[in-house]
Specification:
The complex is a heterotrimer of chains A (136), B (294) and C (157).
Chain A lengths: L11 E3 L2 E5 L6 H18 L3 E5 L8 H16 L3 E5 L3 H10 L7 E3 L2 H7 L13 H5 L1
Parallel strand pairs in A: 2-3, 3-4, 4-5
Antiparallel strand pairs in A: 1-2
Chain B lengths: L4 H16 L1 H14 L9 H20 L4 H7 L1 H17 L3 H22 L3 H44 L4 E4 L2 E7 L4 H18 L3 E8 L5 H17 L2 E5 L3 H10 L7 E2 L3 H13 L12
Parallel strand pairs in B: 2-3, 3-4, 4-5
Antiparallel strand pairs in B: 1-2
Chain C lengths: L5 H5 L9 H5 L3 E5 L2 H18 L3 H20 L4 E6 L2 E2 L2 E10 L7 H5 L12 H8 L2 E6 L5 E8 L3
Antiparallel strand pairs in C: 1-2, 2-4, 3-4, 4-6, 5-6
Helix pairs in contact in C: 3-4, 4-6
The chains are: A alpha/beta (136), B alpha/beta (294), C alpha+beta (157).
């Protein structure tokens, strides 16, 4: 795998936060390409936070888990905080039984809460339930 | 070919008897079952009659299919299904397995009686009896097997339901859920607790889950490990976990066993845990680092 | 339909009932030679878990175990095969994966089953993790003679 490869996953920029997601059909090469591309973007944009939405991942095996942990470490070295959001319940149970704790990886229930934790808030909204988004 | 013409003839006669005397056979069978009290359950006479009609129809099409008599019950789809359905119904109704297969075997007598009306020839009657025995013994065996499987299925489902009932996830506060554990926390139970809790976290967008262990008699290394697993799974979802109901004696056991629960937020009572949970939600402020995640 | 004949006498009354599904599910072997094959195996195993009737969490466990084992065969065994079987036992159906490779074999099996042990990519949770996710687990390995890992999960335990 020497030829540069595109991960095929869009990486959006919202202020100083990068927002991206992983697709279920991620193969090893794409995972590596994704890590490289995201690392480039973090250092190039001096982002402070990275949100990775994983709500579409139907499984996380040890390879994907390692990819996420490495990404978190690399991002932290570059000064950005990574939040992994939206893990599905069966995936969380399986990871725990597999014995993988995703050490050092911050998690959030969904993308919205992950973004809020990264300090990127939505506009004030009078509807009940928005307190979380606006207040944190 | 080792099948003698007489077996083919016997088969044909039985098929004809079944088709022409179906009502008679069904009546006799229902009667026999009622007489011998082979039900042990509250199946109505009308239902019995319905069962009988279905089984007789299936026997006719099974015999007409030409599948050898010893295999027709297990390999003819319609007949197999009719016997299975009947046995399952009895199993659900609470009849014993013996009674269930005896009920199937009672059909032998009804069949033989019908053949008797067609012929009086001793040799033919004997051949018919042998044929009917082979046919119905297979049905009896299948019935027994189905019954046992059906009961096991019921038991499994009930214990699963019981387990789910005994691990209710309740919403204590906005974005705070609690699951009170009662009894021992083994692997199977941990899996059910995790599944219910994680699903509830997702459904309610909960930020804190309280696992209350007041009703857990002892905490040994295995239970502690299962608690840790639950906490880790909750954290992977992006929520926090508080364990409450740690009684002094349990705290001592945990300390003596050298189990490290220091990574987990624990509280003595559910009330204390709720207070801690609300504090976690309100958070140390928008820029705090110790918000919902580690 | 079999003709009435010898088979009738050969198979006596206690024929074990075979269901339609069991007869239909012949084992299927999937070759693992490339990274793309890992995805194909995952798809096939997912479809198989649905067919057997596993719940969502069990589906995820089995597919994850398949992914770990197939990756092991790909990384350490230089490729191999994954065979999906549908065993049965009274009151339950199961799904069995037989993952075979012709690689160098595992020299120290105990170490390989210990978490954190790895000689390639991943976290070293491959074998041990797959063992925890499944109900039954066996490994046959000979140094230089390849490895066969067989894992099974049942619908009801």
């Amino acid at each position: 795998m020497t030829a540069p490869r595109l991960a095929g996953v869009p990486i959006l920029r919202l202020g100083d936060v990068l927002v991206t997601g992983l697709l279920n059909e991620l193969d090893d090469g794409a995972a590596v390409a994704f890590t490289e591309e995201l690392t480039e973007r973090i250092s190039g944009s001096s982002a402070r936070g990275v949100l990775i939405d994983i709500s579409r991942l139907e499984i996380i095996d040890s390879f994907v888990a390692r990819t996420l942990m490495e990404l978190t470490t690399v991002a932290r070295l570059l000064g950005a905080r990574v939040i992994v959001a939206g893990m599905r319940p069966p995936v969380a149970i399986t990871l725990v039984e597999l014995g993988i704790e995703l050490v050092g990886v911050e998690t959030a229930l969904n993308a919205e809460q992950g973004l809020a934790a990264l300090g990127w808030r939505q506009a004030p909204d009078p509807v009940e339930g928005s307190r979380r988004g606006a207040g944190r | 070919m080792r099948v003698t013409t007489s077996e083919a003839a016997v088969r044909e006669r039985l098929t004809r008897a079944l088709r022409e005397r179906d009502a008679e056979i069904a009546d006799r069978w229902v009667e026999l079952q009622l007489e011998q009290a082979l039900l042990g359950t509250d199946i109505s006479e009308a239902e019995l009659r319905e069962e009988a009609d279905a089984l007789i129809d299936a026997l006719v099409s099974g015999l007409e299919s030409g599948v050898p008599v010893d295999r027709v019950v297990t390999s003819h789809t319609g007949l197999h299904e009719a016997v299975v359905r009947l046995s399952m119904r009895r199993a659900r109704g609470g009849a014993t397995p013996t009674v269930t297969s005896l009920a199937v075997l009672a059909l032998k007598e009804a069949l033989l009686k019908a053949v008797q009306r067609e012929t009086r020839d001793a040799e033919e009657l004997f051949a018919s009896a042998v044929f009917i025995n082979r046919l119905m013994d297979a049905a009896g065996a299948l019935s027994f097997e189905t019954y046992v499987e059906g009961r096991e299925d019921i038991i499994r489902r009930q214990s699963q339901q019981l387990m789910e009932l005994s691990t209710p996830v309740v919403r204590l506060w906005r974005q705070v859920l609690a699951v009170p554990l009662i009894g021992t926390l083994d692997t199977a139970r941990t899996q059910v607790v995790m599944e219910n809790l994680l699903q509830a976290i997702q459904d309610h967008e909960a930020l804190v889950a309280i696992v209350d262990i007041t009703g857990v008699p002892t905490v040994d290394t295995a239970v502690a490990q299962h608690l840790m697993q639950t906490v880790n799974a909750v954290r992977l979802m992006g929520a926090d976990c508080v364990i409450s109901g740690v009684r002094p004696s349990i705290a001592q056991t945990i300390a003596q066993l050298g189990i490290d629960l220091s990574a987990i937020l624990t509280r003595a009572t559910l009330a204390d845990a709720l207070a801690a949970a609300i504090k976690l939600i309100d958070g140390p402020g928008p820029d705090g680092d110790d918000g919902e995640s580690r | 339909m079999a003709p009435a004949g010898e088979s009738a006498l050969a198979s006596w009354v206690t024929t074990v009932p075979t269901s339609a599904e069991e007869r239909a599910s012949a084992p299927a072997a999937h070759v693992v030679r490339t990274e793309e094959d890992l995805l194909t195996v995952r798809h096939a195993v997912r479809a198989a878990t649905v067919e057997v009737g596993f719940g969502l969490v069990d589906q995820t466990r089995v597919v994850t175990a398949a992914s770990e084992l197939a990756r092991n065969a790909y990384v350490h065994g230089g490729g191999g095969t994954v065979t999906i079987e549908y065993p049965r036992r009274p009151g339950g159906r199961g799904l069995r994966l037989v993952v075979k490779d012709d690689g160098p074999g595992i020299a120290d099996l105990d170490a390989a089953l210990t978490d954190g042990f790895t000689t390639g990519s991943g976290l070293g949770h491959g074998l041990g993790g797959a063992r925890r996710l499944m109900d039954e687990f066996t490994v046959q390995t000979t140094p230089g003679g390849g490895t066969v890992v067989t894992v099974t999960r049942w619908t009801a335990r």
